[in-house]
Every structure is written in structure tokens, then in C-alpha cells.
Design brief:
Layout (H helix, E strand, L loop, with lengths): L6 E5 L3 H13 L3 E5 L2 H10 L4 E5 L7 H9 L6 E6 L4 H10 L4 E4 L4 H31 L1 E2 L2 E2 L3 H13 L6 E4 L6 H10 L8 E5 L5 H9 E2 L11 E2 L1 H4 L4 E5 L6 H13 L1 E2 L8 E2 L3 E6 L3 H7 L4 H7 L2 E4 L10 H16 L8 H8 L6 H16 L36 H15 L4 H8 L3 H10 L8
Parallel strand pairs: 1-2, 1-3, 3-4, 4-5, 8-15, 8-16, 9-12, 12-15
Antiparallel strand pairs: 6-7, 10-11, 13-14
Helix pairs in contact: 2-3, 13-15, 16-17, 17-18
Length: about 450
């Protein structure tokens, strides 16, 4: 069954043929409409934009060739499958290459062949629609997949991604830690013909040498101590999809040799297995190290480097594209609102200025962590200076003397009284939400209840 009732327009001047084909396609789960010639088909599409067209070639008023010619003038036109009783190889090639049809089918129509063509055309159409959406996001919003940016360096990166994503080429992503290399890899996968197939990520630095080969290639039961059952490796799991080898520079040299063989042969052998398994996997590798230096030191194979470095993409550190900070902050606040169920509308100018003054050695990962904490603290209002952590390496936090939510404690106030003021002020900030107040204060909900009883506060709504 086809999802979301994809729209198919059947165009044929013979009523019996048109109705019969429409009933057949409708039974496969498509939404179908009919037209008796090309001119009527264009009228129908003015109010009912078809995704796919099945059209006859020989028709009065406007034939199939005329219809295809008009469709080529449209932006992102529907894909057309041409059917005719007058078939020939020359006609087929002309229809497909010159008129832009998706494919060619002779009458009488083989239902199985028609269904296969429709399903393939729909997959191609939806991939094209996704690409159009992503291109519009790039043009108007500075977004491509999970990537965000409007600076020239990011627009250049977006353009390169759109060029390499539809290909089978291996991609090497470089950049400092926290710049978003996995996000970039997912964007490449999402823009590729493999988008509907698996995306598998393996962090080569997170596994000991004794386990990385098992994770990559899989193992048979009894292949080594602890191998209690057969297990598929990342290559098998990513079959027909994309495999991200993160921190590839940390992979042991002995494993690099085996990886190179898989990349060259397209076959993988589980540990302990006798036979090989064919795999079709697109490789994206990522590293924050300079692999050329690792090659000179003998810790990375030069032949593997050239196999991976077919198309190279570099992510700039956040400090080199600070003009993107407001868009990044807006995007991350939206994500954190959804994650934590809060409604932080944005960030005050003073707090944004404070973020711009930071050097961000941890890049976007550090920014995400800072904003997640700030969103939790802010709760419902905008992020203020008081919600930001102190800059690492300094003893003082942000200046908050003019902030209405700051607490002024006079010298000589007891610790118990300070604690009481802090608790009540936090409850006021969270609108008496004790669970969130306890989270902000860094204590358990039970501890907060006990403190309120100690202060004689009404705890009936706990």
C-alpha cells in the first residue's frame, strides 16, 4: 500500500482503457484522476497537482508529446510514464531522453510492470520533493538538514553537500570537536538516494581495539570469548545506506587494513565466518585530527586515506562564523523547548552579547549545553544573563546586579536564611512548580518538601 495517497493522473483518449487503468492503479493505493487528452490533463493539474502521470502518446487536441513538452516548462514537474501501442526502441529513447518521461511501456500493459514503474517513480518523485524543500530552506532560512548557517563559509559548504550527496563518493569530514560532523554526515545521507535506507554511526574512539572489528564486521557465535550468538556488524546494518566512521583517525592500524579491503571488494567477513557477505555501503568518515600528520607518524595508512578522501568537507569552528550565532541560538532554543516541555521565547540582548563575547572552544556542542541549562533555568521567560554559566576559567559569573531575578544578600545573613530566600525566589520563578524548582536548585523533590516544612511553608499542593 502506498503511503499518503500519492496522486496519479491517467491520460488516455480511449475511455475503456482509461477507466480500466485508473481502477487498477487505485487498487494499489494511489489517488487517481482521469483526462482524455493533454489539454484536459493540464486543466486538471491547475487545481489538483499530480505527482505522477500515466499518459498515452496518440491523442487528439494535445498528444502525449505535447503534454510532456508543457510539463518540462514547470518547476519540479510530475514524473510521466508513457504507454502506447506503437512502441519501438527509437520512440522509447526519444520519449525518455528528449521529452523527459520517467519510462516507457508498451500496450497491452503488464500490470506487474506498471506497478513496479509507479512505485519507482514515486520514490524518485518524493526524493525530488525533499530536495526542493531543502533547497528552499537553504535559500530562505540558512538551513540544510540539521545544519544551520548564513555566513559565506556555510553557504559554500551547503553547495558542496548538495553536489556530493546524490553520488556514491566517499566523503571525509574534518573539523574541530563539537562542530557538528555527525550532523553534516546525516545531511549528506538525507539528501542522497539512500535516504530511506539505514544511517549507521560508529565512533572509532569509543571502542577498545579488541571490539572495534566485531562492531564493524560482525561475528559468528563462538568466534571469541563472550561471543554467545551471531551478530551483524555495522557494514551489514548499513547495507544500501550510509556508514559514518567517526573519529576515523583513532582506528587501530591493523583494523585499517581490513577496512580498506572491504571498501575495495564490497565484501565483509564476520569474525569466525568462512564465507563473505556482499555489502553496498556509502562511507562517510570524520575526524578532528590532521590525517596527513598521522600518515607521517605511521599511525594511519596512506592508501586508506586516499580511499576515504575522495570528497573532503571541512566544518569551520564557531569562532570563525560568529555571525551565525543568533540563528544557531534561535534553533537550539526551539529544540530545547520541545525537549524539556518549556516555552522560552528567546534571549535578551545582554545575554546574546555575552554569548558573542565567548571564544567557544567546544564549538556548537558547548553552545548547545550552555543553552540547554539556560532554557531549564528560564522556564517560561526569555534567557537572561543570570541563566548563563560563568565563562570557564573565571571566578565570577555574569553581572546580575540589575537583573530583577537576582538575589541581593546582605553581609551578616545566616546560611539558613540565604537558603530560605533562594528556595522561595526559585519557587516564585517557576510559578510554584516544585519539580522544576528542585531541578534548578540541584536537590531532590523530597529534600525540597522537607525544607518547605522546616520553614513552615504550606506544602499542601506538593
Amino acid at each position: 500500500m502506498v503511503e499518503h495517497k500519492a496522486r496519479v493522473l491517467v491520460v488516455d483518449d480511449e475511455e475503456n482503457q482509461r477507466r480500466g487503468l485508473s481502477s487498477l492503479i487505485s487498487a494499489w493505493g494511489y489517488e487517481v484522476r482521469q483526462a482524455e487528452n493533454g489539454a484536459k490533463a493540464l486543466e486538471v493539474m491547475e487545481t489538483w497537482p499530480a505527482q505522477l502521470i500515466v499518459t498515452d502518446m496518440m491523442m487528439p487536441v494535445m498528444d502525449g508529446a505535447g503534454l510532456l513538452g508543457k510539463l518540462k516548462e514547470q518547476e519540479n514537474p510530475p514524473l510521466a510514464i508513457v504507454v502506447t501501442a506503437f512502441g519501438s526502441l527509437e520512440t522509447a529513447l526519444n520519449t525518455i531522453h528528449e521529452l523527459g518521461a520517467f519510462w516507457f511501456l508498451e500496450k497491452p500493459i503488464d500490470p506487474q510492470a506498471m506497478k513496479l514503474l509507479l512505485d519507482r517513480a514515486l520514490s524518485a518523485r518524493r526524493l525530488s520533493e525533499d530536495k526542493v524543500i531543502l533547497e528552499r530552506q537553504l535559500g530562505y532560512e540558512g538551513r540544510l538538514g540539521g545544519l544551520v548557517g548564513q555566513t559565506p563559509v556555510m553557504h559554500e559548504l551547503f553547495g558542496l553537500v548538495q553536489q556530493v550527496a546524490p553520488t556514491r563518493a566517499s566523503v571525509l569530514i574534518t573539523g574541530e570537536s563539537g562542530t557538528g560532523k555527525e550532523v553534516l554526515a546525516r545531511a549528506i545521507h538525507g539528501l542522497s538516494p539512500r535516504a530511506k535506507d539505514p544511517f549507521v554511526a560508529l565512533n572509532c574512539a569509543a571502542l577498545p581495539e579488541s571490539l572495534i572489528e566485531s562492531e564493524l564486521f560482525g561475528h559468528e557465535k563462538g568466534a571469541f570469548t563472550g561471543a554467545l550468538e551471531r551478530r551483524a556488524g555495522c557494514f551489514e546494518l548499513a547495507h544500501r545506506g550510509t556508514l559514518l566512521l567517526d573519529e576515523i583517525g583513532e582506528m587501530p592500524v591493523s583494523t585499517q587494513a581490513k577496512l580498506l579491503r572491504v571498501l575495495e571488494d564490497g565484501k565483509v567477513r564476520r569474525l569466525g565466518a568462512k564465507g563473505e557477505i556482499e555489502v553496498d555501503v556509502r562511507i562517510v568518515a570524520a575526524t578532528n585530527r590532521k590525517l596527513e600528520d598521522a600518515i607521517s607518524k605511521g599511525t594511519f595508512r596512506e592508501d586508506l586515506f586516499y580511499r576515504l578522501n575522495v570528497f573532503r568537507l571541512e566544518l569551520a569552528p564557531l569562532r570563525e562564523r560568529m555571525e551565525d550565532l543568533p540563528l544557531l541560538v534561535e534553533t537550539l532554543i526551539q529544540q530545547m523547548n520541545a525537549k524539556h516541555g518549556v516555552r522560552v521565547p528567546g534571549i535578551e540582548d545582554a545575554a546574546m552579547l555575552a554569548l558573542k563575547r565567548r571564544s567557544w572552544p567546544g564549538n556548537i556542542r558547548e553552545l548547545r549545553n550552555v543553552l540547554e541549562r539556560a532554557v531549564i533555568l528560564a522556564g517560561e521567560g526569555p534567557i537572561r544573563m543570570v541563566h548563563l554559566p560563568p565563562v570557564p576559567g573565571t571566578d565570577s559569573g555574569p553581572a546580575v546586579s540589575n537583573d530583577p531575578e537576582a538575589i541581593l544578600i546582605r553581609v551578616g545573613t545566616t546560611v539558613d536564611e540565604c537558603e530560605k530566600v533562594l528556595i522561595f525566589k526559585t519557587l516564585e520563578h517557576t510559578r510554584q512548580n516544585k519539580t522544576r524548582a528542585a531541578e534548578i536548585l540541584g536537590c531532590s523533590l523530597k529534600t525540597l518538601h522537607n525544607k518547605l516544612k522546616q520553614y513552615g511553608a504550606d506544602d499542601s499542593d506538593a
